[in-house]
Amino acid sequence: MADTTIDKARSLLTPPVRRSSPWATFAAAALAATAAVLMAGVMVLGPGVRFEEPAIVSAP
User: Fold this and answer.
1) Distance between CA 12 and CA 10 in Å, rounded?
2) Is the pLDDT of residue 60 over 70?
């Protein structure tokens, strides 16, 4: 009885095997690339750029 309890405790204490996924790596790279493009767009436009809204034309 004690042997099976000790073996079960040992099996629970072993760290799980982590498998790396190529999809996770691809998703992280895509996220980094998207962030880089967005940050580059902010740097190009800068804080002084304004987009004026066109005047609303009332219908007759």
Assistant:
1) 5
2) no
Half-sphere exposure of 12 (CA within 13 A, CB side): 6
Query: How many angstroms separate the CA atoms of 60 and 54, rounded?
Result: 18
The pTM is what?
A: 0.47
d(CA 51, CA 53) in angstroms, rounded, equals 6
pLDDT at 36: 93
Which pair of tokens denotes residue 23?
A: 């999809």
List own/partner pairs for 29-36 with CB under 8 A and 24 or more apart. none
Distances in whole angstroms, Cα of residue 21 to Cα of each of 18, 26, 27, 28: 9, 9, 10, 11
The one-letter amino acid code at 52 reads E
